[in-house]
Amino acid sequence: MKKLDGQIVIITGGAQGIGEGICRVFCNEGATVFLWDVLEDGQKTANNISSNGGNIFFQKVDVTSQYFVDSAVENIIKNHGKIDVLINNAGIIRDRSILKMTREEWDMVQSVNVDSLFITTKAVLPHMKAANYGRIISASSINAFQGAFGQTNYSASKAAIVGFTHSLCREVGKYNITVNAVAPGFIKSEMTDSMPEEIIKAGIAQIPVGRIGTPDDMAHAYLFLASKEAGFVSGHTLHANGGAMPI
Ligand SMILES: NC(=O)c1ccc[n+]([C@@H]2O[C@H](COP(=O)([O-])OP(=O)(O)OC[C@H]3O[C@@H](n4cnc5c(N)ncnc54)[C@H](O)[C@@H]3O)[C@@H](O)[C@H]2O)c1
Fold this sequence. Notes:
Strand order of the largest sheet: 3-2-1-4-5-6-7
CATH architecture: 3-Layer(aba) Sandwich
Bound molecules: nicotinamide-adenine-dinucleotide
Strand content: 15-25%
Shape: globular
Radius of gyration: 17 Å
Number of helices: 9
CATH class: Alpha Beta
Distance between the termini: 34 Å
CATH superfamily: NAD(P)-binding Rossmann-like Domain
Largest sheet: 7 strands, parallel
Number of domains: 1
Order of helices and strands: EHEHEHEHEHHEHHHE
CATH topology: Rossmann fold
Helix content: 40-55%
């Protein structure tokens, strides 16, 4: 018996990076995964995972649009009758020191990183409530807790996710729904791949386990919180940073 056998899971921002890793690990654990992304590459990622036996479907969904999110959820419910797990992983950065940051750069980050949680939760929650079961897990960040130069918009958005998690867990616990967050540290991704070698080395020097994190590391943190066995863990932020910021 695999950990997510028979489970219907939505993973936002699954086309690449950490989201792709979560899709891969969740499929290996028997889940039926709906990969949501704005990138057409989501289809390639889904094809790749399904060619290795994964049960995964790409839906082109912009998580800032209630219309697209509602339509995708309706489609899942029509065909599968339930949604067990929602992973709010989609996120963006628009880094700039605050004196140079535009209002648009501020708003875009809040829209994708925070407003999307309101939108996806509104769409999915009635179905979880009806089923008396659910797992909602969202991507925070180490930078919500330690800050980072040029990331006032991003750090504020990732801290908002922690507050959202604390409040929502109080509202929905009675329906057997848990709400948690994962706060990744320094993780190998498209973004970190483009950083200069010496910045990467300096970053790794701050990590007690002595290496950069991987999407697979993050996927297993999400997997624990998504499992049936984690039913007594709610309102928690799981810090997955190799010890870079003990908390
Ligand atoms: N990589 C890291 O070091 C790190 C550290 C801390 C937190 N995080 C968080 O983890 C999550 C994943 O990070 P990543 O490094 O894999 O990022 P990434 O940029 O590689 O992937 C993010 C995905 O989200 C998608 N996306 C963006 N806007 C969207 C929208 N409106 N609707 C649907 N999909 C959208 C992108 O197309 C992309 O596929 C993000 O929320 C990020 O903030 C990452």
